[in-house]
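Quick illustration, no need to memorize.
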Amino acid sequence: MKTLKDVKVGKTAVVVKVHGEGPVRRRLMDMGVTKGTSIYVRKVAPLGDPVEVNIRGYELSLRKADCEKIEVE
């Protein structure tokens, strides 16, 4: 299983599934991270947290822990 955390800077991935429970999963889905959505990894902070991505036409910063919950292909 490949997660958003594994995607390199400058690459695009497509969301397969959003893992997690309750409010965490709901928050990610409310931000537009849904199945079939294309995510472009724009940059990663020096220590790996947070990750800046472009999704649905806007920029979003995600924690590394949240990126591990997003399965991509």
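Residues 22 and 28 are 10 Å apart (CA to CA).
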